[in-house]
TrEMBL record:
<dbReference type="Pfam" id="PF04359">
    <property type="entry name" value="DUF493"/>
</dbReference>
<protein>
    <submittedName>
        <fullName>DUF493 domain-containing protein</fullName>
    </submittedName>
</protein>
<dbReference type="InterPro" id="IPR007454">
    <property type="entry name" value="UPF0250_YbeD-like"/>
</dbReference>
<dbReference type="InterPro" id="IPR027471">
    <property type="entry name" value="YbeD-like_sf"/>
</dbReference>
């Protein structure tokens, strides 16, 4: 992980600690190229966590947005999921 990414996650961890009481619901937003395999990879990352996942395809159908609402135990668990899905080719985390 590069220095810029580490700094981003450090700031995110600090902000999550200061703004939420844990465990807490967290809303992840991702955009992936519309590809069944990529969408399934994101869904599988949240399997068995009781996540509510909504998908919306772009007007052109080229991209799919995923909103993942899930209860997380702490900021570290939130960041671990971001890191886990970052390996999916073409994913954008919002």
């Amino acid at each position: 992980m590069d220095k810029k990414t580490e700094e981003f996650y450090s700031r995110l961890r600090e902000e999550l600690n200061n703004t939420s009481v844990w465990p807490s619901e967290y809303l992840y937003k991702f955009i992936v190229p519309t590809d069944k395999k990529k969408i399934e990879e994101v869904e599988n990352a949240f399997d068995n966590l009781g996540a509510v996942i909504q998908t919306t395809q772009s007007k052109t159908g080229k991209y799919t947005s995923l909103s993942v609402n899930v209860t997380m135990e702490n900021p570290e668990q939130v960041i671990e999921k971001y890191i886990e899905v970052s390996d999916i080719e073409g994913i954008i985390s919002l």
